[in-house]
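**Tokenised fold:**
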Amino acid sequence: MRTNVVLDEELVNSCKKATGIKTKKELINHALQELLRHKSQKRILELKGKINWEGDLNEWRSGYKP
């Protein structure tokens, strides 16, 4: 999708320097992906204390072989 936006050039340059990302397009795509990742993590953290799991963690891990 193509769109035109006015970006804070100082902010863009700071972000490019911090991430090593070279282009504005890559930087914006990275920022959008990070936004989604952050929201997903936040939803998962909101479940803390709301799920009751009964089981034996050691038994569950017994089949795991790295």
Summary: The helical segments are 9-19, 24-46, 57-61. The chain is about 60% helix and 0% strand. The chain has a mean pLDDT of 91.
